Amino acid sequence: MANIRVTKEFTFEMAHALLGYDGSCKYVHGHSYGLSVTVIGKPIENATNPKLGMVIDFGDLKKIVKETVVDIFDHALVLNSKTPKDSFNLKQELFDKVIFVDFQPTSENIVGDFAEKISKELPEHMKLFSLRLRETATSYAEWFAADNE
Fold it and tell me: Is the dihedral of CA 20, 32, 138, 65 positive or negative?
């Protein structure tokens, strides 16, 4: 059986700010993100397996991505961990979902982080092929496994 690519798409809302950036993205702002997750593998051939003919059940892929990425980052504020914490009051309920990351939270870095998180959770018989993280209607960053081997 040939390798087949399977893609599931997700949407979520997230805010970020780019520490030290020389444009307006240095300010806290948000986006409606679109995430396309593509895995590759051979469809299951075991006739006794209820997933016969599938690389992965779309529902199983949805569960993995929601638990590792979407549910965590949806409606979160993502900031570089070097952002001065005294610039806002983290004790306010308004900041209950602030995620500090050890990188500049650009689409490029975020998609790489997501690839690492999702890859760890996939079943052994498949691998992550690519991710596309759409930040705006006309802008996105992509990650491909072939570029990172």
Answer: positive
Name the CATH code of domain 4-148 (choices 3.30.420.10, 3.40.1050.10, 3.30.70.260, 3.30.479.10). 3.30.479.10
The model carries a pTM of: 0.93
CA pair distance 123, 109, nearest whole angstrom: 24
Q: Enumerate the active-site residues.
A: 25, 75, 135
2-31 pLDDT, tens digit per residue, is 999 999 999 999 999 999 999 999 999 999
Residue ranges per structural domain of the chain:
4-148
Do residues 65 and 118 make contact, with C-beta atoms less than 8 angstroms apart? yes
